[in-house]
């Protein structure tokens, strides 16, 4: 499995305080697969929420992205809305082999327990 790494620097560069680097990697999917990275966020416990996600093919080429406001929501609802919108786009585009990637531990626990 190959990874593609990107090096990001904080701005302004050079920073006035301690310099730092962030390494991000795209883990390549199997040939023929599509990867969905999704995320949801909210301001406070039940503030304005928004969702976003992007699809890439096995070469890490951009296929499709989305970003939308969802109104008032907590963080779990926002994460669920981001996943739901991503899955709607999977169906609309006829993709069948899809790798889902999100960062909400609680969402994964809910899905694992099938609640």
TrEMBL record:
Pfam family, one: RVT_3
GO molecular function: nucleic acid binding; RNA-DNA hybrid ribonuclease activity
CDD domains: RNase_H_like
PANTHER family in the cross-refs: OS05G0353850 PROTEIN, REVERSE TRANSCRIPTASE-LIKE PROTEIN
The species this protein was found in: Prunus armeniaca (Apricot)
Gene3D superfamilies: Ribonuclease H-like superfamily/Ribonuclease H
Record protein name field: RNase H type-1 domain-containing protein
Occurrences of domain RNase H type-1 (ranges): 37-114
